[in-house]
């Protein structure tokens, strides 16, 4: 690859520089406020041999640069001009679309065609394409009318000329001006200060008369033409017959004439009498389309290096857009998008570059998309491209003037210079450059190389111009021919660089790479070659850190290994530091530390089933570890395998009877694994095998969260046993050492309950008795079987020792040893403001346990507050309630509101309501029918009770449903029932209270209708109200006397006909496993 590109490089740039010997140079730069970057060199070999050179860079590349030399008498004496871009990229992709070029056919597609003869082909051009137009010489010695160009009848043509004065332009309807009608244009005139237009319908005369009419004329203040400058004019004739002559650089209109009987010209002919003149007639060929389309942009491109750079000229209409893109992995990636100038109707050319970095494909296809800015269907669309070439992002242009020795044998150095057409007022100033003596590749970093140029003179007026070509070498030498893997970044790290001055930096290189560097000094044609390495990166790259870590783990060891990074991603030497640390101990130090270039390490003496962190530090050298800098840490976690479990702790036989035993124990703090199986062996002298055994999954105790329990059945009554317990970790095969405890299979006295607490449940109405909710914990030292709990509530207001009339005895049965952490029961009809003693004990068939007691006093009835929400008002869509105050001792309460109508046809209760624990059964709602929904969730707090509106469209979150509900509006004139559920928590016990408000109506839509109904029915109201009030009064008195009778009877007899909590809400007792309480 290197030899191929090097051959292109040297062939394209070698411009006969071997003629330069003992040369005197004049380097010229602009003196205006922003001088163009143009260097002019007069290479004077001897008294009769001069080689002029100019070098352009920067913004000056947007303009044509013309040579200015003495005018010659014969075309054969015209100098030969050789121009090129440096670095040279003579790529087969380049094309200027000239008719003579074969590349044009490769670029033409269905919609893109080559234009060579249309209104746009002749327009003035002063960019770099101007230099490619042929130069014509006219004088008294040249054949008359020989310099001509074919044109369309409506045209605009650019004409550039160098002359002292008086040149002529003929626009004719035929090839011979003396035989066909013509427009005659004189530029400059005899005094070089006048221009005029004449029209000859019968052809121009052999001799002109001063009496010939001038259709238009112009008087110049200064000379319009010059031998030392190229002047460019625009000559045009439009469809309306307007004939114009305009000076392009100054944009001054010289002639402007409207011809009502305009000619239909086909030729433009130029000549100059009595002096020599140089001409350039602008005719440009380009590629264009007039329709929106997508097409390939030329043939496939073979980029050099990793930098894509394509330069071209574009011209589009004001409402047009031209997009360049590539297709990568099935996706369009835009390179550049050009949008037309909406403020200009004139089609202008401008140079653009398509640039993209990090291009690693060997071939690349570029596409174009043409479309209108607003995607509308416009007419007369126009998109054009010209002079496409592969470029460099930073490049220069160089031109050499090869003079005819005989024609220029006695000229002075000041007679040759160069001109920027877009800035003709620029003039150069001389500078001197000395030849180069030596080039040294001095130093490098990870991404750059510095070259030093030794020159005999350090004068600041001296100038150096150098071109550097660099190419990276892949350091990976694969012996396997089938393995074509390579580092694309290194192979594609190549390019050119333009250097000035005594040192040159080559940037953006690949680290740890050997570069071939070719140096060429343009001024003295000296060439050098050197090789130099870029140094490694200071810190390893992410491709070099360990990946795909393999670990071989046992209970006490770990072998860690990984693959060494591939050569293709290696950017320097690599060393590793590996250390292991125990995760479970944040204060522990590093257990193991090894530093080496190896990729395999073994660590022993680790603890079983322990979380460890292994940190692998990657650096370029060991010094990085010593100073704790410039390395990358990669952290991995691993867990050693489980080992043999240790012996269990605190083994206890917490309960035993004639047929079964209950054992509990604790796991040791460090089990060396995840305990999964427990083995229990119970041994008896009568067993033939000595012991029986059982394997069970390790299960936590239902009653004690920190303990693990085992149940052993089928014991022999009265037998003396030794119970042995051991555990085994998951993924292991060996049980731990056994822990033992003795026990005898007999019934024992049950243990004492603990944690006895109570809370008061107030009546629903003022004057009704309160209830006590009593709860206690299961005995920690259970000892024997428990079949029931006895609960005694003894009134202690009397002074004598015992009064059975003041004691309530309740029994809570425990069926089939269904023990719970906490038990509770409710005692109804308890007096307010009365002292009591609560006692609870455990009982089995043989023994009664010890009492757990507590002294209490019930609350005063004066603290009673009505818990029922109070109706306030209603509208046709809402009903407002006033909520009750919180009970004493409560900080907050949650309220859930259910709404139901009385529609008998709907019997399905909403699923959301079924999900609520307090409404799981339909009898807790107002009705078992009707449309139902959850309307609101509200958190009540202490303070003044708030008003609550049902139907106000508010949104609230219901935790039990885990979603938001909307308080949707009610229907007008509709009957509703409301269910209010209060969820309170007293001393860690949840209490649910449910209240209903039935037969509430919303208002009608029209208040006027409601008023009419009231007025119409008011006469009938009195007939019903008075009797109803009397009936209610009699019923109330009867209820009061009955209540007094039942209270008195209970006080005297202490006997219940029914269970005291049968008429209470079903959820008042939270223990679902006990039987109905039995009253003594």
TrEMBL record:
Protein name, entry field: Fibronectin type-III domain-containing protein
Keywords: Membrane, Transmembrane, Transmembrane helix
Cellular-component GO terms for this entry: membrane
Record flagged with keyword Transmembrane: yes
Entry-linked InterPro entries: FN3_dom, FN3_sf, Ig-like_fold, Methyltransf_FA, RTP_Phos/Ushers
Transmembrane regions: 1021-1042
Domain of life: Eukaryota
PROSITE patterns: FN3
Cross-referenced Pfam families: fn3, Methyltransf_FA
Organism: Photinus pyralis (Common eastern firefly)
Domain (Fibronectin type-III): residue spans on this chain: 539-643, 752-863
CDD domains (alphabetical): FN3
């Amino acid at each position: 690859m290197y030899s191929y590109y090097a051959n292109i490089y040297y062939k394209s740039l070698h411009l006969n520089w071997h003629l330069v010997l003992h040369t005197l140079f004049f380097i010229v730069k602009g003196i205006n406020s922003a001088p163009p970057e143009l260097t002019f060199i007069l290479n004077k070999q001897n008294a009769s041999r001069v080689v002029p050179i100019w070098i352009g860079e920067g913004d000056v590349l947007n303009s044509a640069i013309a040579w200015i030399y003495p005018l010659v008498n014969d075309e054969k004496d015209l100098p030969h001009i050789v121009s090129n871009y440096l670095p040279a990229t003579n790529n087969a992709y380049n094309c200027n679309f000239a008719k003579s070029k074969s590349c044009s056919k490769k670029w033409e597609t269905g919609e893109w065609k080559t234009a060579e003869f249309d209104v746009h082909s002749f327009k003035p051009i002063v960019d770099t394409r101007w230099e490619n137009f042929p130069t014509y010489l006219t004088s008294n010695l040249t054949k008359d009318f020989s310099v001509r160009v074919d044109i369309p009848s409506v045209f605009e043509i650019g004409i550039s000329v160098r002359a002292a004065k008086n040149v002529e332009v003929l626009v004719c309807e035929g090839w011979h001006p003396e035989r066909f009608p013509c427009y005659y244009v004189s530029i400059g005139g005899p005094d070089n200060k006048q221009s005029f237009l004449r029209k000859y319908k019968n052809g121009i005369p052999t001799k002109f008369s001063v009496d010939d009419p001038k259709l238009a004329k112009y008087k110049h203040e200064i000379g319009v033409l010059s031998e030392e400058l190229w002047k460019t004019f625009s000559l045009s004739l439009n469809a309306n017959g307007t004939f114009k002559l305009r000076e392009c650089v100054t944009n001054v209109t010289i002639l402007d004439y409207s011809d009502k009987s305009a000619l239909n010209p086909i030729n433009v002919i130029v000549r100059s009498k009595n002096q020599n003149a140089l001409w350039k007639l602008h005719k440009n060929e380009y590629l264009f389309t007039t329709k929106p389309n997508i097409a390939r942009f030329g043939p496939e491109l073979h980029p050099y290096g990793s930098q894509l750079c394509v330069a071209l000229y574009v011209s589009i209409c004001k409402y047009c857009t031209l997009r360049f893109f590539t297709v990568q992995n099935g996706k369009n990636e835009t390179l550049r998008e050009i949008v037309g100038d909406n403020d200009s109707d004139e089609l202008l050319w401008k140079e653009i570059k398509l640039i993209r970095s990090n291009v690693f494909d060997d071939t690349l296809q570029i596409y174009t998309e043409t479309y209108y800015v607003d995607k509308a269907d416009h007419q007369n669309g126009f998109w054009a491209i010209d002079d496409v070439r592969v470029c460099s992002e930073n490049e220069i242009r160089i031109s050499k003037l090869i003079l005819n020795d005989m024609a220029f044998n006695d000229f002075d150095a000041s007679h040759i210079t160069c001109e920027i057409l877009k800035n003709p007022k620029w003039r150069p100033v001389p500078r001197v450059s000395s030849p180069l003596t030596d080039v040294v590749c001095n130093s490098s970093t990870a991404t750059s190389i510095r070259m030093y140029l030794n020159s005999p003179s350090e004068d600041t007026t001296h100038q150096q111009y150098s071109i550097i070509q660099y190419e990276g070498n892949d350091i990976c030498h694969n012996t396997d021919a089938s393995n074509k893997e390579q580092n694309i970044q290194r192979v594609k790290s190549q390019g050119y660089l333009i250097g000035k001055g005594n040192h040159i930096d080559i940037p953006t290189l690949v680290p740890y790479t050997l570069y071939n560097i070719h140096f060429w000094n343009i001024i003295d044609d000296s060439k050098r070659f050197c090789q130099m390495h870029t140094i490694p990166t200071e810190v390893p790259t992410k491709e070099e850190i360990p990946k795909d870590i393999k670990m071989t783990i046992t209970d006490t060891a770990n072998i860690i290994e990984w693959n060494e990074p591939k050569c293709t991603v290696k950017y320097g030497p690599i060393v590793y530091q590996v250390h292991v640390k125990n995760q479970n101990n944040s204060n522990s130090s590093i257990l193991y530390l090894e530093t080496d270039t190896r990729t395999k390490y073994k660590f022993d003496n680790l603890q079983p089933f322990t979380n460890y962190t292994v940190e692998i530090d990657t650096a370029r050298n060991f010094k990085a570890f010593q100073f704790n800098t410039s390395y990358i840490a990669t952290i991995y976690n691993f867990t050693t395998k489980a080992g043999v479990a240790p012996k269990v702790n605190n083994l206890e036989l917490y309960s035993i009877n004639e047929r079964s035993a209950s054992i509990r124990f604790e796991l040791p703090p460090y089990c060396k694994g995840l305990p999964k199986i427990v083995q229990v062996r119970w041994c008896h002298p009568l067993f033939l095998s000595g012991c029986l055994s059982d394997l069970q999954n390790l299960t936590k105790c239902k009653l004690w969260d920190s303990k693990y329990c085992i149940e052993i059945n089928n014991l022999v009554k009265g037998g003396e046993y030794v119970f042995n317990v051991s555990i085994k970790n998951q993924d292991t095969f060996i049980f731990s050492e056994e822990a033992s405890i003795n026990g005898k299979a007999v019934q024992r006295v049950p243990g004492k309950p603990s944690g006895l607490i109570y809370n008061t449940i107030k009546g629903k109405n003022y004057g009704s008795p309160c209830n006590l909710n009593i709860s206690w914990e299961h005995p920690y030292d259970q000892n024997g079987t428990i079949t029931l709990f006895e609960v005694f509530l003894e009134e202690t207001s009397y002074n004598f020792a015992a009064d059975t009339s003041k004691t309530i005895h309740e029994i809570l049965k425990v069926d089939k040893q269904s023990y719970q952490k906490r038990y509770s029961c409710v005692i109804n009809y308890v007096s307010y403001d009365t002292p009591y003693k609560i006692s609870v004990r455990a009982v089995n068939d043989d023994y009664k346990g010890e009492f757990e007691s507590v002294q209490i006093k019930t609350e005063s009835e004066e603290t009673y507050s009505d818990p029922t929400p109070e109706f306030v008002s209603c509208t046709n869509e809402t009903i407002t309630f006033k909520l009750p105050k919180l009970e004493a001792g409560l900080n907050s309460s949650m309220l859930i509101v259910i709404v139901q109508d009385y529609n008998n046809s709907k019997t399905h209760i909403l699923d959301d309501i079924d999900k609520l624990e307090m409404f799981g059964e339909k009898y807790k709602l107002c009705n078992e029918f009707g449309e139902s929904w959850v309307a609101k969730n509200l958190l009540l707090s202490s303070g003044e009770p708030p008003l609550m509106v049902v139907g106000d469209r508010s949104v609230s979150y219901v935790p039990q449903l885990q979603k938001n509900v909307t308080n949707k509006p009610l229907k007008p004139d509709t009957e509703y029932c409301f269910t209010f559920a209060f969820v309170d928590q007293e001393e860690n016990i949840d209490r649910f209270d449910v209240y209903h408000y039935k037969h509430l109506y919303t208002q009608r839509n029209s208040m006027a209708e409601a008023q009419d109904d009231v007025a119409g029915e008011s006469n009938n109201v009195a007939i019903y109200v008075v009797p109803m009030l009397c009936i209610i009064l009699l019923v109330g008195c009867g209820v009061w006397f009955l209540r007094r009778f039942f209270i008195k009877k209970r006080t005297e007899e202490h006997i219940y006909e029914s269970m005291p909590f049968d008429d209470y809400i079903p959820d008042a007792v939270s223990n679902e496993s006990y039987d109905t309480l039995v009253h003594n």
